[in-house]
UniProtKB/TrEMBL annotation:
This is histidine kinase. Its EC number is 2.7.13.3. Keywords: Kinase, Phosphoprotein, Transferase. PANTHER family: PAC DOMAIN-CONTAINING PROTEIN (PTHR43304:SF1), PHYTOCHROME-LIKE PROTEIN CPH1 (PTHR43304). The gene is cph1_2.
Length: 329
């Protein structure tokens, strides 16, 4: 006890006096009140407080004490133990400070992302409208080279708009405020296919045992939408096939999205999940390069994992796990 309080037994200070005199001024009234409550039997003495040592150092101690009562039930003596919890308290304070700072920074980033997305889209739409007017004004007098330049300009404006939208979606992943709902993944995949695959030369095969999960619908929908759209976008033929199935894996469902496209070589399989990554030139294929990064972040936000499997010659299989029941954070 004396060692914890930075004192020497030679001073002959009684323990209760040592405790009271060492209490931090801001904690003294509370601690004395809690001690009195313990003496009168109102509560057990179990508290954390600060002390000031003779050297001026502040320490955090935890004290737990019990009472010895006489035949009348009156406290005649107390006994207990003190623990030095300075390191754990300071660590918790530091953690709270870092979390507050991280929350503040994330809030600023979210505000910036939303503002940038909104403010940049307006001039982009104006440029696109201007290109459209130029095309209309020139009419039949427009030459092939100018027509191609205007087409490329509008194509890149469209790409930039989608990039801004995807950046906004990426910043929002993992912060769903919606309630978890029951989602029939068979019907979900069917709806996404009808929405995303206008070219019905691509055939969708769904397993009959596609599960019903209790989850946030929007993130799961985003995952399937990007994976199905990618098949059509990156396929090397005008027609193809998409197979989607699922298996139970404990508390998770493992989904498989497989295609018969050109495949992805081993050295590029991790790269595809990075931001702004495309394996073909941007002018050959429209995309922001964020789709699979969105997929990965959405899956990991609910505790799942995603993996790409391909022999690099024909076909890809995206495997990802998703909890059968999402637990609210």
């Amino acid at each position: 006890m004396y060692k914890l309080y930075g004192r020497n037994t030679e001073y002959g200070v009684q323990k209760i006096s040592l405790w009271v005199d060492s209490l931090h001024p801001d904690d003294r009234a509370r601690c004395e009140r809690e001690l009195q409550d313990a003496i009168t039997g109102v509560r057990i003495f179990d508290t954390t407080f600060r002390i000031l040592t003779p050297s001026g150092e502040t320490r955090y101690l935890k004290a737990v004490a019990g009472s010895i009562l006489d035949h009348a039930g009156v406290t005649v003596e107390m006994f207990g133990v003190n623990f030095d919890v300075t390191e754990s308290v300071l660590a918790a304070q530091k953690q709270a400070q870092l979390l507050d700072e991280l929350t503040r920074i994330n809030g600023e980033l979210n505000t910036f992302t939303y503002s940038a997305s909104h403010d940049l889209k307006s001039p982009l739409r104006g440029i696109d409208q201007l290109a459209s007017w130029i095309t209309e004004d020139l009419g039949d007098d427009i030459n092939d080279q100018t027509k191609e330049h205007l087409r490329l300009m509008r194509s890149r404006i469209d790409r930039m708009e989608r990039l801004l939208g995807d950046l906004l979606a990426y910043s929002r992943v993992g912060r769903s405020v919606d309630d978890a709902v029951s989602v029939n993944t068979y019907a979900l995949v069917d709806d996404i296919y009808d929405l995303c695959v206008s070219n019905k030369n691509f055939t969708l095969y769904r397993a009959e045992n596609m599960p019903i999960v209790v989850t946030y619908k929007v993130p799961l929908e985003l995952v399937f939408r990007n994976l199905i759209s990618n098949v059509v976008k990156h396929h090397d033929k005008a027609s193809g096939n998409i197979w989607i199935s699922a298996e139970e894996k404990g508390n998770f469902i493992e989904f498989f999205v497989r295609d018969d496209g050109p495949g992805v070589s081993a050295e590029h399989q991790d790269r595809v999940f990075g931001m702004f990554q495309t394996l073909r030139p941007r002018d050959e294929i429209e995309g922001s390069g964020i789709g699979l990064a969105l997929v990965k972040k959405s899956i990991e936000s609910v505790g799942g994992r995603v993996k790409l499997e391909s022999n690099g010659l024909n076909g890809c299989t995206f495997r990802f796990t998703w909890p059968s029941i999402v637990v609210a954070k």
